[in-house]
Amino acid sequence: MSVRPHLTTSLSQRLVLTPQMRQRIELLAMTKLELSNMVTTELSSNPVLEEVAPGESPDGQTSLSDDLSAIDATTADYNEKESKPAPSVPENGAAAAADEGFSEKAAEPAPFEGEIAALDTETEPERDRDSFQEIDFGSTFEDYLDPGYKTQEYEAKDEVSFESLLTRPQSLYDQLIWQLHLTGISEDVRLAGEAIIGNLDENTGFLDASIEEIAAMGPWSVETVEEALRVIQRLDPVGVAARDVRESLLVQLDYYGYSERLAVRMVRDHLESLQTHKLPDLAKTIGVPLEQVIEEMEIIKRLDPKPGRKYSAESAQPVVPEVTIEKVGDDYVIRFEDDGMPQLRINRTYRQMMESKSSSKETRDYIRERFRSAVDLLKNIEHRRQTIYRVCQSIVERQRDFLDKGIEYLKPMMLKDVAEDIGMHLSTVSRVVNRKYVNTPQGVYELRRFFTEGMKSDTGEDVSTRVLKLKIKKMIEAEDPHRPITDDDIAKRLAQEGVKMSRRTVAKYRDQMRIPGSRERRAIV
What we know:
Blueprint: H1 19-29, H2 32-45, E1 49-51, H3 64-78, H4 137-145, H5 152-157, H6 172-180, H7 187-197, H8 211-216, H9 222-233, H10 245-255, H11 262-269, H12 271-275, H13 279-286, H14 290-301, E2 321-328, E3 331-336, E4 344-346, H15 348-355, H16 361-398, H17 400-405, H18 415-422, H19 426-433, E5 437-440, E6 443-446, E7 454-456, E8 462-464, H20 465-477, H21 487-496, H22 503-512, H23 518-524
Parallel strand pairs: 2-5
Antiparallel strand pairs: 1-4, 2-3, 5-6, 7-8
């Protein structure tokens, strides 16, 4: 049976995101810092966009909605493929979503109206004189070529800039390679060692590959790789390049002179008991007094189970609040934190070039494309602000007790509750609250932390699981260290406060907060 190629047609429906909608979705998920970096990149790549200088307020500048509508109309005139003008923008500057309509609240003047710089509609400013033509090259060269020109005061200021001294933090790889090259080992061992260092986990310092895999990377024997591994494990930090925590701790005990101590046996044969702090059971298993086990435990505590983490490439991410919720009188006001955020507008010169008949078709086409990209960015930034504001507005209405009194009064709230309030999809709200922070009278919180499940109390009131975890944590912190309270005790105390919770649920919440059980807490003491 022969197979011949043939053509077929089929009809199907697909959801295709336009570049504008894709950018709108990406902007919603961005943090303030990411948005600032993205805007800076657009400024450098799109000549139509320009940044408003700090404190600059051009006279006669039109509103954002007027300029966007005018630009839409201008762009539509040059776009041969469009059959009708682009939709106008609401008066408050918000961009209407393609699949989401704004509620009646959105028709009111936005509280941050005017904070996004309006598009420049002024005439082109007078060009500055060319400073290059004002340089007196004769006197300049004579001064700088004369060795007696520089006074002592000038020479004192002619120092190396601190910027030339800045460098990135030293990584684990750099630290180990530098030490490896100082050792008097053979070239084969050194090359095998470099391969080992290149396969270390940057966060823990553990070896991610087997000895056989390292040996297969080059012309080295397994014995050569093992020799290189022993050398690297005794570099700083000691215990690096181990395969697991047990091996790392054993290397450190041997390096620091504890190879004959009981601690070696405890780590080698009973690491699981050490991790769960079951020291009394461990003492019975080994057959030594509990005091001796506790003494050896003090030695083990001084070791580093993950020696590579102090060189970890992961750095703390700064928390920059997106908005501030502050109380003014009896009401709460939502204010955007725009410090450091570039304010954008459309360059007037390029708009005139696009409208000028003397410009070539290629020039007008290029400017028109850049104009559309700039307008889409401005609309999507405004849509992002409107969405964040409406989500925060819904949170304020639902969490007023928290804002007034504190974390103990946080109410259960789901993402779908806010989505229904503002008339948007659940996924949109999820993107907005993720990695966005808000400054409240109770401190700085991630928006997502306001969304928690809840349980019913005896009075029928919803209690947030976050509040219940806080109650459990406070009970444990106030316990007698020598007689820790059990999960059953915590469940009974919560029942007395009107919240019925099983012992298993208490244990689950305690584990989520990474708090050891009562037996482990007693062993730690």
